[in-house]
Amino acid sequence: MALRYFWGARGQALGEGLEQVGTQPTTADVVTALSREERAERAKALGVELARLAAALEQRSLLR
Description:
By secondary structure, the chain is mainly α.
């Protein structure tokens, strides 16, 4: 999904392929937030998701 977003996919195109692997309930909310027309809203949504990813990676860090 991240690469699709980077390449400009929005809306249903952003979530293509996720149906086959299954998704969490919040996935639709993230896809909707990242598909908004206004850049500031997309940036805010992306920032929230990147913060979650960073926190998850930090918890699993082997470099502690």
